[in-house]
Design goal:
This protein is mainly alpha-helical. It has helices at residues 3-17, 25-35, 41-48, 52-59. The chain has one domain. The protein has 4 helices and no strands.
């Protein structure tokens, strides 16, 4: 999967998880779990820790607040 397609797929799943659009929450979570190994850096960390709000902020060009990932 090319980088842009990967980014779009992650964003689509985050939108469902963060209730920005309708969708199957369980499927979106499983999809992100399978995609996290394809990314690196902070995004990989946020997806691994399931810090989805921070991942969303990062993908939208902002810096997430530093602190403990839950």
């Amino acid at each position: 999967m090319e980088e842009q397609q990967l980014r779009e797929k992650i964003i689509e799943n985050l939108e469902i998880i963060l209730q920005k659009r309708e969708g199957d929450l369980a499927s979106a979570t499983l999809s992100l779990d399978s995609l996290k190994s394809a990314v690196s850096g902070h995004l990989s960390h946020y997806l691994t820790k399931r810090s989805y709000e921070k991942a969303w902020i990062l993908l939208n060009g902002d810096d997430p607040e530093k602190g403990v990932c839950h």
